[in-house]
Amino acid sequence: xxxxxxxxxxxxxxxxxxxxxxxxxxxVIEEGGADINEDLVNKVFRAAHSIKGxxxxxxxxxxxxxxxxxETVLDMLRSRKISPNAEITNVLLAAFDQLRVMINDTRGSExxxxxxxxxxxxxxxxxxxxxxxxxxxxxxxxxxxxxxxGTLNPGGGPTSLGNAAATVDTCAKPDWRATSGxxxxxxxPTAADLEKARARAKYVYRIHCDLIExxxxxxxxxxxxxxDIGTTAEILDCALDTGVIGGLENAPADRVPAQxxxxxxxxxxxxxxxxxxxxxxxxxxxDGPHPPAPPWVSxxxxxxxxxxxxxxxxxxxxxxxxxxxxxxxxxxxxKPATASSVEDTLRVNVALLDTLMNLAGELVLxxxxxxxxxxxxxxxxxxxxxxxxxxxxxxLQDVIMQTRLxxxxxxxxxxxxxxxxxxxxxxxxxxxxxxxKDVALDKTLIEGLxxxxxxxxxxxxxxxxxxxxxRLAAGKASAGTVRIAARYDAGQVVVEVADDGKxxxxxRLSDAALRKGLITAEKLLGMSDGxxxxxxxxPGLSTAKQxxxxxxxxxxxxxxxxxxxxLGGQVEIISLVGKGSTFRIKLPLTxxxxxxxxxxxxxxxxxxxxxxxxxxxxxxxxxxxxxxxVIGDRDVLLLRDRILPLAHLVDIIGAVSTYVDPLTRxxxxxxxxxxxxRRSPHHKLAETPLEATVPAGPAIxxxxxxxxxxxxxxxxxxxxxxxxxxxxxxxxxxxxFHETEEVVVKPLGRRLKHLREYSGATILGDGxxxxxxxxxxxxxxxxxxxxxxxxxxxxxxxxxxxLRAQDTHTLLLFRNGPGEHCALxxxxxQRIEQIKPAQVERLGNRRSMQxxxxxxxxxxxxxxxxxxxxxxxxxxxxxxSSANGHxxxxxxCMPVDVIEDKIDIDQNTHRxxxxxxxxxxxxxxxxxxxxxxxxxxxxxEWGAPREARRAHTKSEQITVLLAEDSDFFRAQVKKxxxxxxxxxxxxxxxxxxxxxxxxxxxxxxxxxxxIEMPRLTGLGLAARIRADERTSKxxxxxxxSLAAEEDVARxxxxxxxxxxxxxxxxxxxxxxxxxxxxxxxxxxx
Amino acid sequence: MILExxxxxxxxxxxxxxxxxxxxxxATEFEFDCAALCALDGSGVALxxxxxxxxxxxxxxxxxxANSAVQELLSHLRLADRLHVDVNAEVSHG
Lengths: 1085, 94
Description:
Chain A is of the alpha+beta class.
């Protein structure tokens, strides 16, 4: 690149930045009307001025002229000679659209037709009249609109100028000849063509390229490709290999091979620059005015060509340019294909580059340390270097990711114009609400999001929002609202496109899908309204009564879904008929590195993106029969109150399902047709012997079985990943779960990329290759459909409701040594970490471990209770929790499991300090840990602030009414409250609580209540409290183990002030303390 | 049939089954209004070719109101005659 090229590139980049915000600024200026925002007008004026100055320097006359004319109109605006209105805005928008097109193609800018735009701008500036009088003075506008040029649209409808000129532009017409042969074998240039080229001192080449593989798949514009060729070469002929294009019934073609014969002055040394994106061997030299091979082409690289080419010119032959390049000195640096190809550039904050430099320095130092350690054979030094490299690599990854982040406003910025233009053309009133413009995403994601979001916004405007008349008739405001919002959420970015329009009618969608044969009536039977609304993502489904030019041809939402799937995103629909729709898209922050769970199946490892994983289940053999059923011809998983389709990874990927025989240790073929079928006939695969055996390892538990019973041993537990595609959740049966890893995504090779069940590949830490599973693709290949509306699903929902009404506990089960079964309420556990005994550090009589850069204090049940010590046990786990404002870990042993059931807790038999009681869980007496008591005992100094608080509370004589039907929970919560100095009135149900409250209205400052209770529920109690003027302002805290969004909403409606998780002492006490002082003042219900 | 501004893979995936369905219903003449069409990629070109192949001898594909750039592209590809591109229509200079 010479200096001029570099300067031009900088100018283009800078101009693009100016132009990026102008559209939004012009719309704000228009909205302000006569109340002109001078700062904004000045900003746009300066942008036009800068572009004018730079374009003059580079001799881009058209750019200069248009920028100058725009600048003149803007100057009139800022001097208030004219007032902004829709017509002026239209002209300016179109002018800046055209400037953007010309800036993006500086080389072609001189051939662009800007006459109409210049005329329109001149009319505006010469009129010197109030804006209203200017409308008729826009002959250019009307004329171009009338011709269908799409240059300007005074009516406010969509303009297509930007797209038109950006994607296809006029170019010098080649010398057309009649169409030649179109099928392989490929054509050759005629002798006349070659003679003509020679006469003009041109070289002739044959270019082999594929319109899809080489252009489309690489994001290259087809028309632009021909345009680029046309500027430096003459296209003598072109032929397409139509034989590889499949029929209409097949999938869209993925190849369109083409051959072009071109004549150009570019010699073999320069020609690769014109086709920089093509491998050099696709450029075939045919003929030329001079000896064909440049000095750097070795003789060996020249092979004789066949056919008429041989006799065509002085230098017959075909040059393998790839090989030629490997010969003598490389050709001078090739010129870029286009002078302004700055698509792949990115501006990076200098501070970030400085950080990268520092990290690069750190990396060099670490490398030196490794070298020294290896040379000295110093293991400790090597370990230290490894740690350092690990840290530097993580930081490098973070900083490099940051350099690629761009604000999502780069996509959002076009929507004000889009909504403005569309709503006007459709005669609708629409308010656009844009939120979260600063949310940043990887550059690739930003680019990939543009099309899907644009389509969804168009849909919202076209189909979502009703006409003003329809809205008024439906009792709504005449103006609809379309909202697009982005936010960070749990390591992901959530983008929502919402409207308050007519919503998606599930019946119409299912009728349309049925009518078009996109789904069967049988499958529809099992679908809920939500599932039916998700049918909108089926290809070919459109319920629009009229096909419009905005949308509604049945082309769209399926492509939106496909594109979002490709970006690793998930889309879900929340829609109510008559109320509106929200499309919620969840996206990873980057596509380059994704956190994944590594699993194995059929002796291969695979990665499942964690974004798709809802939870992991291990079904023990004795539980399989209860949790896996058959509906229709499919295994289904019963998961609490849900019924999920179950897919077997090995079946979908076409592998053979196996299991380990516990007696022989041999790997056997699984003969069962389905998991739920324990006695199905022999599967045909059973006849195939397998040689593999598992290595001898720890003893495998034995089991009893009767004749003909093929139940498996404990080794055949089912491992199921509950995964979500955004529109459906299903269970994926895998072989074994392994660790989680941040995997680097590599694209699939040519032979695999058509497989929808994989989204990429990665290399694991141990060097093996793993395929990354595409969760929506697997569901599609497995033919999975939602089952949420089946009769069985409804039965489950009823059962779950009944279970919820009972006193259930969710406990995390662990061991304290091999024989002692223990549990901790799950709500108290933040994370579980597996550690080695050596990681436990002793400081006096206290323990701790290094954890996330800090020291994590550890406690064990043996610190206070008569149980075994476990520090030297293998398979240690740390249950990370918090108490008294400190993070703390409870030591335990594997295996760890979770149980949610009705459990009777005995608070007497095994009660000790640190053990709150015991329960019979899965046939074992299980000790329930009292973490708070344990921590208070080991770290008494942490309780000092509580002591002070307790003294204060006691002196205030604050009374709490506690309603809780579970003896265990009631005792626990009462204890917490009393320890903090509160006086507690406890009742076993809502009715009893109301009686206590009625008798102690003056004393009770706050109510703490369970939700599900006999006689009167917590919601009923809250409603009664609110209805009585003596108590209507009492704060009410609901403690519950289940607080879904809808539960919270119901509670709020009944008058609940706040929700708290059961047994989270810290949160509960903090809330009681803060709310108790509100007595008689307010409530948030 | 009125084409949208883009005829790329995204649109082709949806349009292909519709065209196929139309042929099954007996349609033999397909006229595409290309007034708005400004981006056409390899998939779009392949769709036209597949449709034209399917109709060979029984009907035809006709593209009307194509702008000059689309006309030129199809001429470059030697498809203008085959797809009956209406060259007399007024064209844009975009």
